[in-house]
Amino acid sequence: MCNSWSKAVEVKNYDLFMDIDFDGLKFKGKVLIDIDTERDVALNSVGLEILNVSSGAKTFPFKHSGEELIASTGQFTGTLTIDYLSAIPNSLAGIYRAPYNHTHVISTHFEAAQARRMLPCIDRPDVKAEFKVTVRIDKRLDSISNMPIDSVIDEGHKKVVTFKRTPKMSTYLLYLGIGKFDERRDKFGETDVIVATIPGKAKLGDFALDEAKKAIEFFESYYGIPYGLPKLHMIAVPEFAMGAMENWGAITFRESALLIDSGSSMRARKRVSEVVIHELAHQWFGDLVTMKWWDDIWLNESFATFMAFKVIDSIHPKWKVWDDFLRSETSGAGSRDALKNTHPVEVHVNSPDEIEQIFDDISYGKGASILRMIEAYIGKDAFQSGVQQYLTKYVYANATGDDLWNTLEEASGHQVKKVMTTWIRQPGHPVVTVSLNREKLKLRQERFLLSGDFEPDTWPIPVNMEVNGKPMSFLLDKEEMTIDAGNITSLRVNLDRTGFYLVHYAGLEEIVWRSNLTAIDRWGMITDSFAFLLSNTMTFKDYMILLTRYSGETEILPASEVSDQIALLHLLLPSKMAELSKKFHRAQLELLQKKTDENSIILRGTVASRLVFVDDDYADELAKRFKEYGRVEPDMKQAVALAYGRRTRDFKGLVKAYRNTSSDEDKARLLNAMTAMPDEGLLIRALDFTVSGEVKRQDVRTAILAAVTKPNAQNVLWIWLKANFEKLREIYGGTGILSGTFLAMIPILGIGRASELENFFTEHSIPEAKVGITAGLEKMLVYDRLVSNIQRSN
Ligand SMILES: [Zn+2]
């Protein structure tokens, strides 16, 4: 991929015809490209066998190498016709076969640079064009694309389906699905809202349909622009690498991110809601207005992430999803961003491998947290009006972050550009140390790093704090500043945690604890303290003292966080931390037993799952319930399955249950349970099962990541991983999935064998996962140091 092309090329239209051999898994393609260029036509094309390039009666010589197809046209204005052939592989990117029940659907996934696997095209987000898609398929099959069907012509046992022309859009948003689909239809105003699934599953789409309609209503009002297409499909694809993809008018999902049945957990419902609404946010932000180049992919992703929480909070206020936002987005991105091997939110990328790897916590979570910070800084109304202006101005076109800052600045009168430019372009984030000297409060900022070597660096930080109950807001844009505070009796900094920074209260902890702390404040205290423990700037002893303040925590947000921290410590030091984990989780289970709100139900499931690994009596009790697994309360099913796997070692029983369920959510629980086998031989069988062909390729990662969370599995997992390394690369080729997977695995796997991992990853070069591996190795050293510190501490 070449980012340095001048924009001396314009495509008006692609007329695509595909004659599809559904069973033979191949197609004949013909694309007519209405193009205007100053030199030879240069297109992207991978894996396509180009037969002929012509215009009218004239044929052009061409060269096809790497990902580029160059036709010797010279300066060219007109319609270029390309005839080609292609196979439809078992991959997860481009046009691919998604198998189920001994048959398949054909589906596509093009983001970021994969449209070139279906048609020769200028595969860049800023070269937008209209698409007219026509397919010739078996009469018995259905087909879905971005637009509704325009015409169907019978041809014996085949039919030719032509879709209406799309509006101007980027190549990565094009979609085509062929197969047998069941549909569930509804309407929002004039727009058809449709869930499509493999046969027999469409009724499981009702919850998603409902969420989608509410979201469209919200977005039309918030953006001030109606949904642009005559219909919206939400398609459950049986094999899908990501959670979902926002193809304009034809959003694709993995089944578990769209479908809800009677056995689905509350956790799954929240997840479906979030994914559906995230993709809907993109229909405007991303699809209608698109980033110029992938350097700004964060703008798409962070915006959709941020907006999804806004919408869910409005339609399900009881879910308190901003609490989830803090845990999954702000804190999740913070720990990634505290590595030296982080990257700025806006990052320069060129090759497809590089592009695929930046769909990460920084682009989603950090970007979204910074948008939340800027909204808090300029106010909700100004933020909305700036976004409206931006969308209206760049409709059907492309824009950059700067363009958004300009409209936000105009709408608010605040220095948005100055603040945002630093936050977006500077890697890392600050810790603000607050200290008191003779009634003067001092705030000092520096770059927080998990390595512990904090570096001098400054960000323009919109600070919101409360001193003696009085709120204060200002921009801290230098290294330090001092405030006359008088006699301080209460203090809270970074209110609602809208700021993307940590707070270190130096010698002020007791005053802070006497303040009227909210659940978010308490969450912030323990979250930051764990980061200080990891960075070796807080002792384990001090951390443990703080932890005792949370032993009977009754608020979901801090209780969930403490549970996560204890689970991680238990993973790093199983024998040493088992008792702590047992005590905390037993107390939590007791507290949560009688609660009936959604978030308590979810946390109770998590707590039970963790208790299974430290409390044999409890695990034995739970394991007994596996025989009535179908009737177990959905959010407790995971704990029951884990207990069964761990205590009975009945691998065959779990496999049988796996084969008997058609729900992907359930299958994931059972895979998780298989990796809870305490016996090394059984664990190997569990891991082998995941790549036996019986488990969906999309779920192999799920299973491996589940294995990483089992305290006793690390040895076996590492041996297995080395042996199955190339297989994993093959499964996830072209997706960028392995980058995130290795980042999650390496820090845990590396405990006690850090140099072995370093050597292994030096010897095995994996360009498609380089970003995650490098970061993972750095984090591994952080965990390794913590483990030795704790071991030495008594
Ligand atoms: Zn997205």
Report on the architecture of this protein.
It contains 26 helices and 29 strands. By secondary structure, it is an alpha+beta fold. The strands form eight sheets. Strands 5-4-8-2-1-11-14-13 form an eight-stranded mixed sheet, with no helix packed on it. The protein has a five-stranded mixed sheet with strand order 16-17-18-20-19, covered by helices on one side. It has a four-stranded mixed sheet with strand order 27-24-23-29. It starts with 8 loop residues before the first strand and ends with a helix. Bound molecules: zinc ion. Zinc ion (ZN) binds next to helix 2 and helix 3. Zinc ion binds next to helix 2 and helix 3.
Radius of gyration, CA atoms, in whole angstroms: 27 Å
Mean pLDDT: 95
Into which percentage range does the β-strand content fall?
Answer: 15-25%
State the shape. globular
Structure class: alpha+beta
Number of helices: 26
Largest sheet: 8 strands, mixed
Low-confidence segments, ≥5 residues, pLDDT <50?
1-6
Which small compounds were modeled alongside the protein?
zinc ion
> How many strands?
29
N/C terminus separation: 55 Å
Percent of residues in helical segments? Answer: 40-55%
Oligomer category: single chain
Q: Strands of the biggest beta sheet: in what spatial order?
A: 5-4-8-2-1-11-14-13
